Amino acid sequence: MSSFNDQGFPVVHLSDDGWSNEDEATATCFCGAVQLVLPLQKPGLVNRHICHCTDCRKIGSAFYQSNITVLSTHLKHTRGSEHLTTFSETKTIRASTSMENYFCKTCGTLMYRRGERFPGLTILRTGTVDDLRLAEGRLRPQVEQFIERRVGWSKPIEGAAQAVGMHRPEDIEGIP
């Protein structure tokens, strides 16, 4: 493990103790109160995707969200679990299913989501990963979903599978 602050790329939050190695990386909220360790390889890393659904737009305050799906059993809280607060919703893109959103109480960063429809899985926001270089390689999206809701000025990601509605891993080559 090595710190990356001295390697010449921006640190965009108040915490400076993020790291990554071959197997894992940290994800930290903006103020640094909450830090997670996520897997970078299977079986813990399930997929990486962009979502254009209305839920992701609203909860993330953007036109789409970049996400990392991991097995919940492989996600570690290294600090600040007591700083997380939740907001549960049942009016989601999949009617009558609940989605629980985990935010830092101090700065409001959405760290991850867990849904009734996805037992055993946690959906993290790629933007919380401390080593920003990972987004260019190992955490680059494999698929874009709900592309029918993509804003017109946003273009498909080169090399990413395109899914109308929610992607089903078994329908997209290269997705576990």
Total DSSP E strands = 13
What is the number of helical segments per DSSP (H or I, 4+ residues)? 1
Question: Quick check: average pLDDT?
Answer: 88
CATH topology: glutathione-dependent formaldehyde- activating enzyme (gfa)
Profile the largest sheet: 8 strands, mixed
Which spans have pLDDT < 50 for at least 5 consecutive residues? none
CATH class: Alpha Beta
CATH architecture: Alpha-Beta Complex
Major sheet: arrangement of strands = 8-9-10-11-6-5-12-13
Name some characteristics of this structure.
glutathione-dependent formaldehyde- activating enzyme (gfa), 8-stranded mixed sheet, 3-stranded antiparallel sheet, 13 strands, lyase, CENP-V/GFA domain-containing protein, metal-binding, zinc
What report would you give on this structure?
Keywords: Lyase, Metal-binding, Zinc. InterPro entries: CENP-V/GFA, Mss4-like_sf. GO terms for molecular function: carbon-sulfur lyase activity; metal ion binding. The protein has a single domain, classed as glutathione-dependent formaldehyde- activating enzyme (gfa), CATH 3.90.1590. A hairpin with a 5-residue loop joins strand 9 and strand 10. It starts with a strand and ends in a 13-residue tail after the last strand. The chain contains one helix and 13 strands. With 176 residues, it is mainly β. The longest helix is centred in the first third of the chain and has 7 residues. It is globular.
